[in-house]
Amino acid sequence: MPIRREPTPPIVESDSRARERALVQAAQEGDAEAFSALVRLHQRRAYAVARAIVLTHEDAEDAVQEGFLHAYRALERFLPGQPFGAWLYRIVTNAALDLVRRRKVRDADQLSETVALPFRDPGEADELRRRLTTALERLGERQRAVIVLHDVEGFTHGEIGGMLGIPEGTARSDLHHARTALRRVLKDMRGEGDT
Amino acid sequence: MTYDHDSRANRGASDELTRALRALVAPPAGEGYWDGLESRIMARIAGYGQVDIGPWSVLATWIRPALVAAVAAVIVSVAALVHTQQAEARVAYETLLTAPPGAAPVETALRPAIVGERDVTLGLLLAR
Question: CA-to-CA distance for A85 and A91, rounded, in angstroms?
């Protein structure tokens, strides 16, 4: 019996790519509506990328805004052949990393306070989430980014390496170390629960 | 070396970890939030290149004309000063050359100093 294939997803993808390319071209020619459409298309993923690196929702939002602003400024240098998303996420990644570095330099005290008392999120009262947040902060931004981008957002090691400017193998080993560290948090919690 | 071959226990822990991470970094759900974020991004892009300095922006619009006016004023002042000095020198020179015949002669050397009594006595002694 012949296998019935799903109806042509590549064409759909190619359509969306063509649409995106047209939007990029229009935005490069100064069409603000076209850039707005690109923001609508990519802001969720851009937020996820930023949120993987920074520790708070507010910082993620700041990084997304900075990222889109940088992208807009650099739009004329974007080569139409390449995927816009990958280019944009790399810019957002850099904006998020910059923000983390600035935070570290500016006020380390405020950062640790933010980690201990995350804001406006009712679920943060939960012990696991509180411990995870602390453990993520201890990981450092690169390992934190790798585990969230891979395990939560589904990016490949290669894509993550491209975004963070590290070799694929480094992304792979960062993922391993991050998972080990965070699993220890879970294990410790279970251990405490048993006693 | 690969890090992907985890044990079953680790895979279980990974699933739990992934769920916890997903909950931790979950993006805001409402469409209103994303509409708002898009608006904020586009507002920043619209303001790109425009420096917002609040109430000082009114003064800022006058800075350039004020600077131009100040530079022009300095140039005019310097030109007037130079012109005045040249005119004064010319008048002094012409006054000197066109002095009336009865006028006192122009002294070109210093007057002899007032001679004291002591010098007069010394002169008489030497004359003998």
Answer: 10
Q: What pTM does this model have?
A: 0.61
A37 phi, psi to nearest 5 deg: -65, -35
Taking Cα atoms as reference points, which of B37, B48, B35 lies closest to residue A69? Answer: B48
Tell me the shortest Cα–Cα distance from B63 to chain A, in angstroms: 27
Pair A164, A148: CB distance under 8 Å: no
What digits encode the pLDDT tens for the residues B21-77?
888 888 888 889 999 999 999 999 888 755 444 455 556 567 778 888 899 999 999
Say yes or no: A134 contacts chain B, CB-CB below 8 A. Answer: no
Segment 148-187 of chain A within 8 Å of chain B by CB: 148, 151-152, 172-173, 175-176, 179, 182-183, 186-187
Q: What is the pLDDT of residues B87-105, one digit of tens each?
A: 888 888 888 777 666 666 5
Q: What confidence score (pLDDT) does residue B49 get?
A: 58
**Which residues of B are less than 8 Å from A32 in CB distance?**
42, 45-46
For every residue of A26-83, DSSP letters joined together read HHHTT-HHHHHHHHHHHHHHHHHHHHHHSSSHHHHHHHHHHHHHHHHHTGGG--TTS-
The tokens describing A25, both together, are 């071209």
